[in-house]
Write a structure and sequence with these properties.
single chain; alpha+beta; 4-stranded antiparallel beta sheet
């Protein structure tokens, strides 16, 4: 695995590097961000390109990228520490309603939920359940493995003792619905 810290809106060179790295290595690109409109836009620019660089998206975007960040649903489902949205955040979320990168039902419902809640959260909010909550361990999808990615040690630290798993470790792995309508999401929560 390769970890890249993009420090906000990624530069063109970073997006091109991520695209090339994913294509040549065939590693899955996972985008782990905060639950705020600016982070969703970061994901959108990595996966599908930015408006200002639409003419060169074919060399910058990585459509197979998957969103793994904190979501508004996570804020309520995991009772995460949070901040209130400010007016600028609200305006950005409202403008995303007409952004084709976020037209899928999944994103539409998350955006509406966030506006309803009036809350945002950072990745660090997950540390409420321990510093290893977001640890990712991949079991071999070959012999004896079931191709499951376990996020943290949720079974040990979540009050409901639930285990968040994503099925299907393969090139079509989907953690959160991608913006590509051709791929189907498969997120499951097992207890």
């Amino acid at each position: 695995a390769i970890l890249v810290h993009i420090k906000g809106q990624p530069a063109r060179s970073t997006r091109q590097f991520l695209q090339r790295l994913q294509q040549e290595s065939e590693l899955q690109l996972l985008v782990f961000t905060d639950a705020d409109p600016w982070s969703y836009r970061i994901y959108g620019s990595i996966a599908y390109g930015a408006i200002k660089t639409a003419h060169i998206s074919h060399v910058l975007a990585t459509p197979s990228a998957r969103y793994l960040g904190v979501t508004p649903s996570d804020i309520t489902n995991y009772d995460l520490p949070h901040d209130n949205l400010n007016e600028r955040d609200r305006q950005a979320l409202k403008s995303m309603r007409s952004d084709p990168r976020f037209a899928e039902d999944y994103w539409s419902s998350e955006i509406e939920l966030q506006l309803e809640l009036g809350l945002k959260a950072e990745q660090q909010a997950l540390a409420k359940y321990g510093l290893d909550f977001v640890t990712v361990s991949v079991r071999d999808s070959g012999e004896g493995g079931d191709g499951t990615i376990d996020f943290g040690h949720c079974y040990a630290c979540m009050p409901t003792r639930s285990l968040l798993t994503v099925r299907g470790l393969s090139p079509s792995l989907s953690l959160r619905p991608s913006l590509s309508p051709s791929l189907s999401p498969s997120l499951s929560l097992s207890r």
